[in-house]
Amino acid sequence: MSYDDFILVWQQYPKILEAFGNTLMLIVISGSVSMMLGIFLTPMLMSRRKAISLSVSVYCESMRCMPFLLFVYMIYFGLPSAGIQLSNWTTGIVALILYNAAYMAIFLRGAWQDIPKETIEAGRAYGFYGFKLFRRVIMPLMLMRAIPMVGNQWVQIVKDSAFLGIIAVTELTAAMNSIQSTNFIPFASFLSAVLLYWLISLVIELVTSLFTRYAQVRRT
Amino acid sequence: MNAYDYWSIFQGSFTTVGVSLAGVLVGLPLGLCLALLRWAQMPVSRQIAYLYVSIIRSCPAVTLVMLIYFGSPQIGVSLSPLVAAMITMAVTASAFSSEIWRSSLLAFDRQQYDAALAFGMPRFTRVWRIVLPQIWRSSLPGLINETTMLIKSSPAIAVIGMVEITRAAQRVGARTYDPLPPLMVGLALYVVIIFALVRLQRRLELSGNRLEPIQ
Questions:
Q1: ipTM score here?
Q2: Contact call for residues B30 and B90 (beta carbons, < 8 A)
Q3: What is this structure's pTM?
Q4: What is the CATH number of the domain that holds A192?
Q5: pLDDT, tens digit, for every residue of B140-159?
């Protein structure tokens, strides 16, 4: 391990930057879509109809018990026997979205239960009901309360995305692995990967803290 | 799938649980040390501990295990996959548990520490007798929660050739050309492990409530 190793790694910056871009793309797409899906699933979790709330909570709980890699294998190797064949990229994005949407829904449910009853009652008294009550009263308060948890889950998405290298998605860890195996410089290349992941999560933490400050001003 | 396939997946759970357990046993005390370093506000080591926790917490388990396994020969030690996997789990557990220990330490009433000082207790006794029994109880739920997270990240050790539940299930699937049933068996094993931990957490929370700390 020496200083030269890092230079050797970073001489291949087109490859690294491409993989870094892929990782960023995976994170941004799956993070935002799973957040939206989570917002969509939360009212179903809180639904008074037992069939809906039960089926969604079975989905959420089974995701919570499953390691991400097992879920990826289920989609990548398991679905073809059911007649659905997805490419490795589609598998990666679909798995990241479905897996993390369950976590998002659970956090959002927690945030919903944390909203004071009086606020929702007041919304009802003003004539809000059904979807409009959710859209105008519950959702903003719920999202503001859930910001720190959602930010943590984004960091979790960053960490999960590294598993996708196993099914040949060219993300950061997979690219660094191919660089280290051609040049025999494992320490420098993986350390670079670790630092790049750190950079991503620092940005996520920064954005989360900005949103938290925004929410604190408007907290009820 | 024949009986041997079921057995081989079940054997994988020994690896999953064993490696995670080793990681927890080494990682939790290490995390406590890191948290105490930050709590004691020692000038340089505090910043180093913060940097370590921040980097490791954002580092994917796959990358970390490859860094440790492939990188260790470059600094002159050649690790077996098992040892590398255990070190990875310990490093991850130390970073995560340090955050939990730290939040308990911040909630800890510092007056008790000062009172112990007034009684003339030496530093180690103060931490061991006064601080630790109380923060241990308040951080236990969080620590068990982190252990389930650790178990969920444990398939990462498959990339260096360890055969744990997920890898064992995938191997059976590759042999029988029907991958879904073995993966379901694997999932069932994870559900059992994680549910056992959640039950343990609930039990400990209940028994912890009975022993209210002295205010």
A1: 0.88
A2: yes
A3: 0.89
A4: 1.10.3720.10
A5: 888 998 899 999 999 999 99
